[in-house]
Records
---
Amino acid sequence: MKHITKILILTFLCAIPAWATPIAADSASPATEAPALPEGEKRLRQGIIIIGKLTQSMAEINNKETADAAVPQIMRLCEELRQWTQAFNNLPPLSETETIVYEDRYLPIIRKINKIMQAQADRLAAAEYYGSQNLPAALIHVAQVGH
């Protein structure tokens, strides 16, 4: 599980998976409600959602104005990611079975996220961060959360 955490932290861009979209409270009947997820899995999903928000922020950058406007949000999400990392690392260790299940379930998603992140990072770098002085520093700050 630490391997998955490291992958999440070392990246800063992804798409929010469909399963992460909240379901309206009245849309599920009591007979069809899913069982509660274990805390480790909930936390893992929360991390993916935070990185999804970072992806959205980066994907919306297409000029200097949007680049500068994205910096405060990226910094806020970086802080959320830092707090998520601390909370995740404070969870009790996962069993070997849980680790295998979560890696099977989430590693393909995380690998896809990494490809999307790299493409967005390359796009922003090729555009020279649209002339923003603060965007490169904000993105470096996000990448350093896991170090």
---
Amino acid sequence: MKNIFREPAEPFTFFSYSDFLILIIINLILYILIKKKWLTLIRINKITIGLLFLIIVPVLSTQIELNNVHNKFEMVDGFNVLYVIFKIPIWWIIGILNIYLINMKVKNYV
């Protein structure tokens, strides 16, 4: 049986199945926290969410992708993994959108 989470991203897609899994898990956790009204927008929570989306998740995503590439191919050239650099700004955009949506949802519940 083929493990889809160990496959590198296809050309021109940037995201693999593991990236979608990370995104779904984070958004589900944030959704539950907002629905239960456990997430308040104090400074430490804003900093934590910002660090999560702007540093931790992009680094985790790129490490998973590089491990998947090295596990699948015997010879890995620098140009073959150049697309990994572009995953970081995409995660930043997703993080900024999530932070904006979190702000709107939390303000609606207050």
